[in-house]
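User: I want to check something. If I give you two sequences, will you return the structure for each one separately, not as a complex?

Assistant: Yes, each is folded on its own. Here is the first sequence with its structure:
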Amino acid sequence: MSEKKIENYTLWQEFKDHHNEEARQELILKYLPLVKYQVGRIKMVVPGFIEEDDLESYGIIGLIDAINKFDYRQEIKFESYASRRIRGEIIDHLRRLDWLPHSLRRDAKQLQETAERLAGKLGRKPTVNELADALNISRDKVNQLYYQIYSSQWISLFDQKGDIQLFEIFKEDSDKGPEKHYQQKERENLLAEAIDRLSEAERLVISLYYYEELTQKEIARVMGLSPARISQLHKRAVYRLRGMLSRKKEQLV
């Protein structure tokens, strides 16, 4: 591959071919903005108490791993290759965390079991009032419990739905055959219908995050809201989308 076809060609050559540690360190510094960018996007889908510094630390681990394994002679952009590894390392770290307090986990289990029992008995999803009566707690307490459970989750369209990531529905692949292309269009139509049912603010957050690929802070500036409010809108929008699309799972997979 010629020098013109890859950024920082000389540094990659020095590191990979001559094992130059200074070149490796310089590559890490040059590509650190990739970590900042991925953290800025992931921060929107995690609870507020997760520190950016922690996310960046694991992102850097992913970056270093990408630099060590990258073959600069291949026809691959390092930014694309590294972004997947950075994001993957951060998400793996988050999945290893268990941030629900024991008391909340106990209450959540009781709420879920009660909801399932009532659903089986009633033949439908129980109302908040019915759950409150069954648990002998107030309606406000049920709503608060749902909110605490919901707020503790980091939910994203990057999560799996069957054998497909919902985020993949947003992507267009011109190399697909006619059948795959048709299926993709059907998925996009289902997603578009679901997005149309969101509030205006929720639709804008989804558009800026998944289509424009802005970070949480960038979206906050565009919409004139706090980053925390943007995170809340995103989580609520995704929660609603997943609920609407789960009823059409057969058409998505």
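And separately, the second sequence with its own structure:
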Amino acid sequence: MYALTVSAADDTIDKPLAPKGDAARGRAIVANRQVGLCLLCHSGPFPEEALMGNVAPSLQGVGARLSEGQLRLRIVDSSRVNPQTIMPPYYRTSGLAHVAPAFQGKPILDAQQIEDVVAFLATLR
């Protein structure tokens, strides 16, 4: 598991968790309602999706608003940026409540999946 090294100056995790991400795989993760679950809360440039969430910011243009390090931190553990967030930590596994026994100690996304999602979101300019 990755040791969370966050830059306080700009709210980032600059060091990738795995080798360079693949944007196509990242898009598939974001759009998949059984893997990433992102579209339950976010909307974005997914014309094939009839229903998308509206309780979180749109993903449209997120790559222009946030650096890869900022995107990575928000996916790994958004509560480091906003302690009141309802976004689940996709990579943090400790200090969580109400986790089913089968999922305890396991991240929602593995390190390579995080990097794939970061690679995709960075393309959304």
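Because they were folded independently, the notes below concern the second chain alone. Helices lie at 23-31, 62-65, 68-77, 111-123. The two ends are 30 Å apart (CA to CA).
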